[in-house]
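REQUEST FORM: STRUCTURE PREDICTION
Request ID: SP-0412
Submitted by: Lab K.M.
Chain count: 1
Length (residues): 681
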Amino acid sequence: MLIPGRLVLGGACAALLAAALFTAASPLDLGLFLVALAAFTAPGWPLARWFAGSERDPWSRLIVALVLGYLAGALTVVALRAAGVSSPLACFAATLALAVLLDRVVPRRGPGLVALARFEGRDLAALGVLWLVTAAIVGPVFARVGQPTPDGLAFRAYFIADLFAHMSVVGELAKGATPPINPYLPVEPLPYYWSYFTLPGLLTVLRPEPLLHHAILLTDIVAACLFAGTGYLVVRTLGASALASGGAWVVVLLANSYEALAYFERAGWAGIAGRTFRTVNVDGITRWYWSLPGVDGFQRMMWWTPQHEMAITMGLLVLALGAAPRDRNAWQRGLADGLLLAGALAFSSFNGGLLVLSYAVFELASLALDRGRDLPRWIAARALAAAIVLAALGLTLAVGMVQRTPGAFLFGWNRYFFRGPWRFLLFNFGPALFFAPLAFGLRALRGRPGVVLASVTFVAAAAFLGFDVRGHENTYVVFRAAQLVFLVLAVLLAFAIDRWRSWPRPAAWGLTAALVLASLAAFPTVALDWYNARDTSNVAMNPGRFRWTIHLTPHEQVAAGWIQRELPEDAIVQTDARARGRGTWALVPAFFRRRMATGLGLFELDPRRFDPNMNAIHAMYSTADAAEARQACIGLGIEYVYVGPVERGANPAGVDKFADHPEAFRPVFRLGDEAIFQVVR
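STATUS: Completed
RESULT:
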């Protein structure tokens, strides 16, 4: 089985490389990315030796090394940024120096902290299949992001939201300010968990280009591979077979929802033939049709929220440490727990917080099951982990990542869930929810593994049922909590598959056939969602009052190049943010790579706080009085006013004043309907 396994895995690596090549701006950019990734993650190799032991097989060592290396690289860069150091050469020198230091400190031989599974031929085949699935999910979608068309570079929703936010973050990181400034309100630090984006930020400085998304999407491909690989490694470590572990993850990745069936029931085959699904959020049907909570599958996490994906990957290793430690109360395990949880917190504040709470619950529960044995060592190890997590929290607060918004959380029962709890469960979790309970009672899941899974489920359910985030109701908390539930379902489904494989043949074959059929019934949700994520030909207006696909027009591309060449890095360039809404909301920070006096920061906890300034800016565009508009710009800190077709359409009686009054607004750029005016001070 070793040679076939290597062939499958080799094919998967080739598919991933092809996906990266089509995602990169050029082969040169891909080569630079791979070199930068190697330097950034270099500390991971000695850390993998310490974490997993010196006798690891090459592929499991690669997965652990890249995960721990990305964690070490990101935390190193964040610490350097807090100290005022942002030079890419200094950052890469620091990660390489850390790798050399750790290589000398970590013993050459040792069993490691956790008894991870060792990959054999069957594992290579299963991992190869998983990575082929991953390449199929992300490769064709990422290849269409920013696709050149006659109307300009095309970006499909929901890349308009998440990717544009990430481009804004990376553009700001590339400026090197300490702390990074919020480009949508440049009087405050950037209130976003930007640790994950440190590598794309460094690459953007090394290889400046008008668009930022290539470096981000290449990093996202790596993150998707690490998530799938770590998920498989952890389930195997808990004791499931290679076949069951791979099969469970394929089901969770490709058959996570029956929402497409709800669409079929309403639209019928005529809807499929007429392709009306192109204007439907297929993986959000429960929210669209019945105002129930919506659950995003892991394919969406790979496309749009890789920072949360990387946090969950850290959580998977914490799960392995909790369920299969070599010495559960060793200080080294406390150190590893703390570092992994610190990374999860830095990559995703909310997911990291849920994982920290889960860790606290399962450690307290394990202590109770052990009747308090070895209490002094337990306290010492947990105190070390807690100290590291608190230090990471302090670091994120020091660089302004965590936004302190009073009243951000809404506490109370999830009213959306209670509108239809059974319908919500039926449609949102695919066959894994219905087959996973067959694993209950297995000896392999008794003790610590069962406590770990129960703790994660308890914390996720409590978050889902008990509170929400103001301004992002029925989305943010639901998405994050449900992703942890999917992790638990993947583990339980793997053990359920192994359990029925040992039953009499008719029952085993019957349940396997039932799982396959149930998965085929759920697969259309991911398939249609995948189609829509690539469909840049759909420019219809969606219910959010922005188009399913927006374009960076040729004239806007020329304006972007001019701004990046001619205007200072810290220039304040303003558009009519209220008129642009949720479509081209990020034009200035994401594409022009400049700051706005005020913009619509969709990614923030409370984007409504921008409304007063945005209304004042809209009034500045609308008024015909040039002197009044100039005074408003000076008061708001606006240095350059951008006028495009959106501004002209929303303010037909007001925009002529900019060109008619050069004593107040000096024209500096003009191309067709695009114009830029400098505010005369």
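NOTES: The longest strand covers residues 665-671.
Reviewed by: T.R.
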